[in-house]
Amino acid sequence: MRKYLSIKQHLYLMLVILLVPPTILLAYSISERHRNETSSIYAKSLTLARTSVDNASSLLNEAHYILDGMIARPLIRALDPSRCDPILHDLRSWYREFANLSVIDRSGQVICNSASEVAQKLPNYSIRKWFRSATESKSFTIGEPIIGGTTNLWIVPLVQPMVDENANLMGFLSLTVNMARFKPSFVREEFPAGTEVSIIDSSGAYVARSVDTEAKNWLGQQSPIAHLLKMVLDTQGNAATSVRYQSEGGSEIVASFMGVQRSNWHVIAEIPMGAITTRARDVTIFNMAIVFFGFGGSNWRSDICDQENRTTDLFNCGHSSKADAWGQDGPRRGTGAN
Length: 338
Fold this sequence. Notes:
- By secondary structure, this protein is α+β, with helices and mostly antiparallel strands.
- The chain is built from seven helices and eleven strands.
- Strands 1, 2, 3, 4, 5 and 6 form a six-stranded antiparallel β-sheet that branches.
- Strand 5 (154-163) and strand 6 form a beta hairpin.
């Protein structure tokens, strides 16, 4: 005896035929879109890191240019506190990024600078970490972020040792970066919300950040993301690297980082993945809801048809139900008296 499929089975089969292929295609489309958006985030992160490195390198190159030009001037090399070079006081008029230019003798005592007032006592920098490093290497040295002894500003000292013709150390020329003015910048409208750029030194301490909070809240402090910090500091050379990590709050973030040439600085550009993850989730939920309601509707319709015992005629089920309500010959009329 021939066995027929029930109405419910017919409907399920139709739904599988109608919904499965477009569902698979839609899933592939969502996956491909998510992959493309993720690739775009990685590309933007790398571009932002490289641009920020270029800006930091430009600042350091400018500092080298100033120091190399100044260090050859006779009044600078004289190291005479009674004959300070007048050009020192022109510095802040020319370069707003720099806070102070100091002539320092080999004991660490400041002889002249561009920021001090008349009769102001000048500091001695022999206790600073950069002093020992510059003394031993006799080469360009970048100090750690600190509050300036004369300016009382958050600064980073860029120090060039002065040597005589026999390579004997004479003193130092120190150019300090005003950290309030040195801030990584980018067009925020072109990046997802939460995008930030940081510059750290070889100890992992913040040198500069794009955040709007006051520098005193973070400058010179260690980055709190230990695993990311280790990856950045362990990376050799100046090649750009990208990683994906989870923040302390559980957010997925893409970070690109690279070193700044001729320095101990590293740039980190971070872009959150939250926006594209949320979009992919919302699209997936929406399409799952469509499939759910499709199966739910078919199940409801098949139950009605099964209750009417019309298990073999799928397409006439609704028509037959309507016919029962109206009667085979049309709408039923009232039976009142003529």
